[in-house]
Amino acid sequence: MSARRTAAGLWLAVLLALCGTAGASRDAQRPVVERPTMDYVPPAAGSYRLNVIQPAPEGRVVGPDGRFRSLSAYTRGRVTLLSLIYTYCTEPTGCALAYETGVELKAKIIADEALRGRVRFVSLSFDPVNDDYRSMQAYGGSNARADGPLPWFFLATRNVDELKSILEGFDQDIEIEVDPRGSAFRTISHMLKLFLIDRDGMVREIYSTAFLQPEAMLNDIKTLVMEEDARR
Amino acid sequence: MRQFIRGCAIRALGALVATTLASVALADETCNSPYTTRLIKGQEDYVHVWTLGVDGLGDGSDKLVTVDVNPKSKHYGKVVHTLSVGGRGEAHHMGFTDDRRYLWAGGLDDSRIFVFDVGSNPAKPRLVRTIADLPKRTGYVGPHTFYALPGRMLVQALSNNKDHGGVTGIAVYNNKGKFVAKYDMPTSTLGGVAGDGYGYDLAINPKKNVLLTSSFTGWNNYMMDMGKMVKDAEAMKRFGTTMAVWDLKAMKPKQLLAVPGAPLEIRWSLHRGDNWAITAAALTSKLWLIKPDGKGGWQAKDVATIGDPAKIPLPVDISITADGKGLWVNTFMDGTTRYFDLSNPEAPKEVYSKHTGRQVNMVSQSWDGKRVYITSSLLANWDKKGADNEQFLALYKWDGKALAEQFRIDFNAAKLGRAHHMKFSANPRTKQAAVPIEVAAQR
After folding, report:
1. Which of A160, A177, B14, B57 could form a disulfide with A185 if both were Cys (CB 3.0 to 4.6 A apart)?
2. SS3 breakdown of chain B: % helix, strand, coil, rounded to 5?
3. Rounded to 5 degrees, what are φ and ψ at B136?
4. What distance in Å separates residue A85's CA from the closest CA in chain B?
């Protein structure tokens, strides 16, 4: 994608975002995403092992109903794919790509009988000021459901302090863009990361943009489910 | 986080500036992991030089030397910071974490890994962690290449703690410095080629799910005096002769390629659509092309000679241009920096050369290809002696026709040590897209 096309797409996305109304479906406002190229057949599920990289951190989050809960309530007991996003992100290889990848993966998981009821998705905002639990539900639209074959939780945090400990636990780097005088813009600069967490709360894979390949991610999820089954 | 709070307080400034995030690309050299963010496409501000301490020279310690390289700075061409780590462990190579906040640097002798914070203030890196458990955790010694994966670091070792030979492997650490896993280099036969178990560099092609590794030699050789080693026929047999093609996701070697003569640095072409890599074999002075074989596997082809192989010029480092059309090659013995036209990677042609020092080792170019940095030290016991033991960092401008020296810092005169590996950084004021190089390179 050329820089000009990218910039034009972003301007359009920003204008749409500025014209948007809170609580409305965000599907029509999402920026166009740039998908990474995948030119290989991923190894079969269960033919490889995903290493234990680090524990998923504990923390306090605001759930879909506005109540405070432990983050671990959303990261244990099922294989969990967790993404850190903010709702007004316009980077074509950023939050919108994470969301679209989730939508594609969701369809594949629901279609697989062996995965139903074994997996959840979590999208957690790293902007506690602009993204509250209501705007997160609006961002999730029809995918923001706590029931069904694949629950997808859109979560917020109450304040910077509570968010900070979660970000440090995930080793997620974010920065606020600043102007030459040191004044902050609204833009959050971050490296896109999605975390695949096993039912025991251990991070087993981390996906950045180049790794957001749904076929390979599906096999990773299957691999963890197969690992669970083998332990039973 | 302080900036975060400030940002929250004045969030009304609006989202229009969001466009700057993606439309302003930043700069950096071409050899980093594709998962590393904040590519520097413009002017780098600093070059960090991982420097070997020399007994009796300055404090004698290995150190990270930071040089201001922005021509608009009043400190241009000057050492602005040094950070000694204590002792001499054969400082060698470095690599950024995926978020480019931290620089990991290894010692080939003591196997210690130093983690420097270069994100908070690149003008004054801080040592934030020392990892000392590589031999205990893996049996490997000599951490060489540091290559970022999301949230973790691949560490390619050169040797082992049993016989200090060349059989070794790859370690994985998470970004917090905790050991995650180890993978032995292949010693079985794959695709009709016998594995030597040796390691040196590694490089990833994400869209092909391929991890490519090369092979050098073990501690017994790289810590031996070079003059003594070349007279030792048995020692000279103990160099790598293979490259391995791994399934990255599964971290399993799938194929071995015969590449005699110690294939060293691996560079994938970053040009959109390209699926080939190139390496230089040190002992045979050859360039090798690694590309798909059309049958679902990979092949290695000897595509060019570097200088006169009979004179053993010893190619020790390469740097590929961002468009994959050119390649810098440094040959240590004759102190020559060479440029190869890679327009046809099947037939690279040397189109320019310049004597840049009595001994030259690493070569690193800026993303735009206009600046070429050169250092001098290969290994403490392989560097030349006496007056030929020049130690320096030099910057050249490249206009497509000739290299023009801009500055040269004498590391001996400055009592710094032996200048080895280089990495670039930029001030925080320079906006850098927080997207992986794999993505930024295509924009």
Report:
1. A177
2. 10, 40, 45
3. -65, -40
4. 14
